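Priority: medium. Attachment 1 of 2:
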């Protein structure tokens, strides 16, 4: 019995201390679990912080701040300057604002491989740039120019066409200068066309001769100079009111600046309709390689003068040319990525471009004075209109008119100046075709 009480007492004791032991074990386990959870939470927090930090680093890596170079910042500044000149001083705003915006777009730093840049295959900008590289946009521009151009002044006084031809000396002078500076023949030909003061023609020729694709006989590839050539051409076109007046005052005396030209004769509707057909045949037989430009130019003019296709002519000179100008300006501007544009070659192209404008203006002015040696009385021409031979239509004609008014407030030269101005457009296209025939 005593043993039975002892065993029963032990069992009661065990039953009594069991909850205490269990609670103690649970507390210990809970403590261990809590410690583990705290450690896991701390580890998870560290991983979260590390992951967030890495995500921020990756985000920063893809931003423009991480990839910007001094060249990008310089080009963005140039783009802003273009926009400023267009808005503040009204320098070719239809050209400089799209180009300036394109320069900014093209120099926003990005990580290569995401089909972002204009030179990355498959990107939207690359598809739009196709029209520049393949020379699609310039003929469409010429179509619009033809549809808005009145050739009456040229038809009324055909001899003024010689002034447009004389101004093309700037093209061939620049060509020789580019060769002297070490550019290859096709590259020099593309650079030379800057002297024609015609942006679409410069794009067309550079897309054929200096596109970074053509392979020369020695196995080397020509440089891609489309961007520098185009920017130089359009920049100096915008600066015509700044560049030309000092040269006019230097070469033309006050007496000659006051020469009054007799009013041009009236041109019939039939003459206006016949002119684009005859001019198309004559110019393209002389320079077949310029057919895409000249063909569209005179086609646009025929739409205007035929009297039967006014709706098409209106579309060509308004909606179409506006759309193409936007695409052309933005894509050409975007092609000036700092790593491609800021080079020694670009600087030399800009210097040659400035000289070409000076030479072209001087060529027109001097040839106008030369023509006067063989003209008498009211047949004499005001030598100022020779400066309009550069094909910056209609800015150079306006500059001539303004300079004439400064010498004689009653001397109106605009209509006379338009004759060499539009002939300069034709002349620059012919010059481009000749260069393409020999160098293409």
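Attachment 2 of 2:
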């Amino acid at each position: 019995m005593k043993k039975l009480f002892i065993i029963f007492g032990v069992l009661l004791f065990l039953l009594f201390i069991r909850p205490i032991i269990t609670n103690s074990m649970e507390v210990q386990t809970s403590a261990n679990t809590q410690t583990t959870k705290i450690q896991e939470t701390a580890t998870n927090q560290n991983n979260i912080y590390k992951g967030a930090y890495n995500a921020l680093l990756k985000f920063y890596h893809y931003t423009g701040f991480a990839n910007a170079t001094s060249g990008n910042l310089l080009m963005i500044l140039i783009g802003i300057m273009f926009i400023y000149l267009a808005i503040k001083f009204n320098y070719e705003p239809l050209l400089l604002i799209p180009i300036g915006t394109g320069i900014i777009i093209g120099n926003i730093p990005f990580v290569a491989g995401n089909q972002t840049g204009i030179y990355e295959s498959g990107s939207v900008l690359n598809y739009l740039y196709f029209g520049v590289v393949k020379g699609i946009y310039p003929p469409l521009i010429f179509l619009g120019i033809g549809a808005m151009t009145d050739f009456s002044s040229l038809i009324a006084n055909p001899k003024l066409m010689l002034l447009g031809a004389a101004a093309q000396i700037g093209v061939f002078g620049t060509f020789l200068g580019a060769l002297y500076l070490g550019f290859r023949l096709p590259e020099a030909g593309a650079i030379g066309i800057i002297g024609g003061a015609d942006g679409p023609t410069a794009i067309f020729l550079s897309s054929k001769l200096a596109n970074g694709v053509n392979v020369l006989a020695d196995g080397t590839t020509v440089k891609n100079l489309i961007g520098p050539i185009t920017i130089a051409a359009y920049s100096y076109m915008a600066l015509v009111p700044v560049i030309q007046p000092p040269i006019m005052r230097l070469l033309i005396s006050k007496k000659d600046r006051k020469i009054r030209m007799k009013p041009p004769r009236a041109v019939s509707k039939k003459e206006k309709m016949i002119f684009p057909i005859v001019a198309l045949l004559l110019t393209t037989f002389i320079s077949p390689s310029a057919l895409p430009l000249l063909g569209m130019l005179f086609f646009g003019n025929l739409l205007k003068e035929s009297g039967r296709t006014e709706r098409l002519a209106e579309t060509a000179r308004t909606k179409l040319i506006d759309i193409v100008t936007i695409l052309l300006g933005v894509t050409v501007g975007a092609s000036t990525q700092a790593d491609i544009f800021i080079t020694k070659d670009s600087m030399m192209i800009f210097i040659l471009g400035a000289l070409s404008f000076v030479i072209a203006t001087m060529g027109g002015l001097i040839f106008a004075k030369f023509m006067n040696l063989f003209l008498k009385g009211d047949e004499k021409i005001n030598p100022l209109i020779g400066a309009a031979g550069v094909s910056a239509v209609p800015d150079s004609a306006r500059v001539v008119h303004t300079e004439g008014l400064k010498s004689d407030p009653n001397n109106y030269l605009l209509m006379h100046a338009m004759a060499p101005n539009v002939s300069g457009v034709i002349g620059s296209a012919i010059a481009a075709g000749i260069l393409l025939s020999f160098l293409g």
